[in-house]
Structures are given as C-alpha cells and as structure tokens.
Amino acid sequence: MNGHPKFPELGLWATIYRETDTFTGRCGLLLWAISGQPEVEVAFALSENYWGQGLGTEVAQAIVQYGFETLRLSRLICLIDPENQASIKVATKLGMDFEKVG
C-alpha cells in the first residue's frame, strides 16, 4: 500500500500471476483532478505476454470491487487512449460508459 500521500489506500500495486508467481504488471486506483474535480481512475497495465487471456478484465473487476465495496467510492473512471480497443473492451465489461474525450 502506501500509495497517494493523502490517500494511502490509493496507488498502484504489482499484479502477480498466481500459477507461476510471476510479475505481470501493475494495477490500482489513481487520484486525478479533471476539470477541477477529483476523480479516481481504475488503472491497469499488463505485460504483453499476458494480453488476451482475460487477466486485464479480472484485475479491473477486482479493483472496481475494492473501490466501491471497501473504499465506498461513488464513482470510478477509466482514462483510455481512443486507439486502445482492448482497454475500451475491458471498461465496457465493467459496465462503464463513454463520457468524453479529454
């Protein structure tokens, strides 16, 4: 833990593939100020070796559950490059809707 100085429950954490005890990337919740409003982003980045296996969705679902159930956040966002179709697909699976282009 020990993520954000004011909000240590936020930040990025290592993702470990349990079957092999291998580091696969990072995930977590990041605090941003967007248009003057605080927003919490669901963030995840996996090594290319682990793409296309559903792990991004699994990680993102766990982060969303943590954000809503444990931290009692009322809103989460994803900041995604418009060309990153895989991350857009994950956000859609999470039930997120497109809001705007930054």
Order of helices and strands: EEEHH
Oligomer: single chain
Strand content: 25-35%
Ends distance: 29 Å
Per CATH, the architecture is: 3-Layer(aba) Sandwich
Given as residue ranges, the uncertain stretches (5+ residues, pLDDT < 50) are none
Helix content: 10-25%
Give the CATH class. Answer: Alpha Beta
Number of separate structural domains: 1
Instruction: Let me know the average pLDDT.
Output: 91
Number of strands: 3
Could you describe the 3D structure shown?
The structure is a single chain. The chain is of the alpha+beta class and 102 residues long. The chain has a single domain, classed as 3-Layer(aba) Sandwich (Aminopeptidase). It contains two helices and three strands, in the order E-E-E-H-H. It has a three-stranded antiparallel β-sheet. The longest helix has 16 residues. The model has no long low-confidence stretch (mean pLDDT 91).
The gist of it:
The protein contains two helices and three strands; from the N terminus they run βββαα. The chain is of the alpha+beta class and 102 residues long.
Task: List strands and helices in order, with pairings.
Elements: E1 11-17, E2 22-34, E3 37-46, H1 55-70, H2 85-93
Task: Describe this protein with a few key phrases.
single chain; alpha+beta; Aminopeptidase; globular
